């Protein structure tokens, strides 16, 4: 990307899109085209085609998606598959029609088989059944990867897919019903501490293992890969390190300074037993994450919960 290129960040108000936009600005890019979801409904084909025809962006980061944690994915199954399929199909086809130079599609590590060998290599895609709690979302994301692959193969488009591991950051969704585990636990421990509650409820058994990446590191990786001459069909982005949900709960409890008990609600699903990405392809290309899990959680805790002006209950409610 040259400084004069026009860049479209789809989903620039979400946690991922806003981090990518910030990273691009820090790197000296100034020429952006941006639309909120109120201004442009990416599920609407005619609107998307007209937008691309008018604006003709050079580069596209496709970070717009309907996202959520285990309960949201399991509950809003139709919205998760329909919205994501529509967004991807419209944006990727419009990018092809309008001659976009390079597009990056952001997927998710839940596209891999539920019981994939760990750490998960890119080539394990479509080698086994998916985790049922987020299958509709995963199927939509797999379709996005296959769209990019097919447009590369048939039309020679420079469309690539990246698969981030579980992400967290300051602009996360902190709604307890729809969020992912890390923002949910930060909120639960914080509120239990200030209200003097005797216990915090953690869903599931605490045994599943997850890998977490600070979203500013993800954004850095995305800009790095957009500018890299190598164009892998699919590339994992993560830290290469995982932690159990019980260990995560302990870490967050320590950071927040909560002294009460942790109890496990096993009526809630565990989801995939382990999700750890193999990031050797990314490391071989020369990229490595910067922010440790503890440092990242501290940053989010301070910015979101210790600032008087912050209203985390209304941030980014995804669903
Ligand atoms: P997943 O990675 O797609 O399974 O999504 P989540 O981040 O929502 O959940 C990860 C794991 O954390 C699952 O085993 C959840 O049951 C567990 N978990 C424990 N407490 C919570 C919570 O309060 N909210 C969420 N979303 N997950 C929790």
From TrEMBL:
GO molecular function: GDP-L-fucose synthase activity; isomerase activity; NADP+ binding
Highest taxon in the source lineage: Bacteria
Gene, per the UniProt record: fcl
Residues that coordinate or bind substrate: 188, 203, 210, 270
Pathway terms, separated by semicolons: Nucleotide-sugar biosynthesis; GDP-L-fucose biosynthesis via de novo pathway; GDP-L-fucose from GDP-alpha-D-mannose: step 2/2
Similarity field: Belongs to the NAD(P)-dependent epimerase/dehydratase family. Fucose synthase subfamily.
Enzyme class: oxidoreductase
Active-site residues annotated for this sequence: 137
Residues that span the membrane, as ranges: none
GO BP terms in the entry: 'de novo' GDP-L-fucose biosynthetic process
Site positions (Important for catalytic activity): 108, 110
Keywords: Isomerase, Multifunctional enzyme, NADP, Oxidoreductase
Organism: Thermoflavifilum thermophilum
Catalytic activity: GDP-beta-L-fucose + NADP(+) = GDP-4-dehydro-alpha-D-rhamnose + NADPH + H(+)
Domain NAD-dependent epimerase/dehydratase: 7-238
Function: Catalyzes the two-step NADP-dependent conversion of GDP-4-dehydro-6-deoxy-D-mannose to GDP-fucose, involving an epimerase and a reductase reaction.
Protein name: GDP-L-fucose synthase
């Amino acid at each position: 990307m040259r400084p004069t290129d026009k860049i479209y960040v789809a989903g620039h108000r979400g946690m991922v899109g806003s981090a990518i936009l910030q990273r691009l600005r820090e790197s000296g890019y100034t020429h952006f085209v941006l639309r909120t979801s109120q201004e442009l409904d990416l599920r609407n084909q005619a609107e998307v085609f007209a937008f691309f025809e008018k604006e003709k962006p050079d580069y596209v980061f496709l970070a717009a998606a309907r996202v959520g944690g285990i309960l949201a994915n399991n509950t809003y199954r139709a919205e998760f598959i329909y919205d994501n399929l529509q967004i991807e199909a419209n944006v990727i086809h419009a990018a092809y029609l309008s001659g976009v130079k390079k597009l990056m599609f952001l997927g998710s590590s839940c596209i891999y088989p539920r019981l994939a060998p760990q750490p998960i290599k890119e080539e394990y895609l479509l080698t086994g059944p998916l985790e049922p709690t987020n299958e509709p979302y995963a199927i939509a994301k797999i379709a996005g990867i296959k769209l990019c692959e097919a447009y590369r193969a048939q039309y020679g488009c420079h469309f690539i897919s990246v698969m981030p591991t579980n992400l967290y950051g300051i602009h996360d969704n902190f709604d307890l019903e729809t969020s992912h585990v890390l923002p949910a636990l930060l909120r639960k421990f914080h509120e239990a501490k200030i209200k003097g509650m005797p216990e915090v409820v953690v869903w599931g058994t605490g045994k599943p293992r997850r890998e977490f990446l600070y979203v500013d590191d993800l954004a850095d990786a995305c800009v790095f890969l957009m500018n890299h001459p190598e164009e892998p069909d699919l590339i994992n982005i993560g830290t290469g390190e995982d932690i159990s949900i019980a260990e995560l709960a302990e870490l967050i409890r320590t950071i927040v300074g909560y002294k009460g008990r942790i109890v496990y609600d096993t009526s809630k699903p565990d989801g995939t037993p382990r999700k750890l990405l193999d990031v050797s392809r990314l490391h071989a290309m020369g990229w490595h994450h910067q922010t440790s899990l503890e440092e990242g959680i501290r940053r989010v805790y301070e910015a979101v919960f210790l600032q008087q002006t912050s209203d985390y209950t209304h941030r980014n409610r995804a669903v």
